[in-house]
Amino acid sequence: MVSQILFGEHFEVIEKLGDWYRIVVAYDHYQGWVLSSQFLPIDYAEFNSLNNEPCCVSFDIVQLMFHDDTVYNIVLGSSLPHFKEKTCRLGSTAYRFEGSVKCPEKLLRTQGIIENAYMYLNSPYLWGGRTHFGIDCSGLSQMVYKLAGIRLKRDAWQQAEQGSLVHLVDEARPGDLAFFDNEEGRITHVGIVLSGGKIIHASGKVRIDSLDHHGIFNNDTKRYSHRLRLIKRFV
């Protein structure tokens, strides 16, 4: 698994192989394969409409979505296209949603980023994950920023190419992203800067550790686990 698509996120099919479809996700242009049973086709007019319309998001850890007699479980950060009066629509299909919703005009941006990050605290690590049931480091940063109305790319190295550079760790603000590299100099990890020299990141689980100019100091093992490469600001 390279990533996950949440309810309401749309994509373009670029290749078909049996029951599998290779797709490009509109949100972050990430590619992967999905089964034909896992998505609902829409036409190009609807696809372009979703591209041009800011989307509301689910703001509950898990919530129910209803269509006729069918009940769907959707997770925090799922997209709710064309949301209006507790209803969202995918193509010609309408779904009733009773949970908490945040729409673009009410997203908190900077003030909400840290609160969003804490909602994922202690979630287990899962390569390619983007939910409370399993999430990776760049999935965490992407989802936390999505909940604040800010679009990030999918992988840590891609996110490191966005934003503006913060030159010193002492100049970092809560909500900035810190990136870390391996021995070959390739960026392989990202975390969200907190106040007081702390960072929240997904490593084994979503956890809080110490951050300084060397990198992340694991508070359990009492040693450095990740080497700091750079810090970026997005708001």
Question: How would you describe the overall organization of this protein?
Answer:
- This protein has 235 residues and is mainly beta.
- It folds into 2 domains: 11-104, no CATH class; 110-233, endopeptidase fold (from Nostoc punctiforme).
- 14% of the residues lie in helices and 40% in strands.
- It is built from 4 helices and 19 strands.
- The chain has helices spanning 44-52, 110-118, 137-146, 156-159; strands at 11-17, 20-25, 31-35, 56-58, 62-67, 70-75, 79-80, 87-90, 93-97, 101-102, 130-131, 134-135, 164-166, 177-181, 187-193, 198-203, 205-211, 215-218, 223-233.
- β16 (198-203) and β17 form a beta hairpin.
- The longest helix has 10 residues, at 137-146.
- The protein starts with 10 loop residues before the first strand and ends with a strand.
- The mean pLDDT is 94.
CATH superfamily of the largest domain: endopeptidase domain like (from Nostoc punctiforme)
- Low-pLDDT regions: none
CATH class of the largest domain: Alpha Beta
CATH topology of the largest domain: endopeptidase fold (from Nostoc punctiforme)
Number of helical elements: 4
Q: What's the CATH architecture name of the largest domain? A: Alpha-Beta Complex
Tell me the overall shape: globular
Order of helices and strands: EEEHEEEEEEEHEEHHEEEEEEE
Content-based structural category? mainly beta
SSE blueprint:
Elements: E1 11-17, E2 20-25, E3 31-35, H1 44-52, E4 56-58, E5 62-67, E6 70-75, E7 79-80, E8 87-90, E9 93-97, E10 101-102, H2 110-118, E11 130-131, E12 134-135, H3 137-146, H4 156-159, E13 164-166, E14 177-181, E15 187-193, E16 198-203, E17 205-211, E18 215-218, E19 223-233
Antiparallel strand pairs: 1-2, 2-3, 4-7, 4-10, 5-6, 5-9, 8-9, 11-12, 13-19, 14-15, 14-19, 15-16, 16-17, 17-18, 18-19
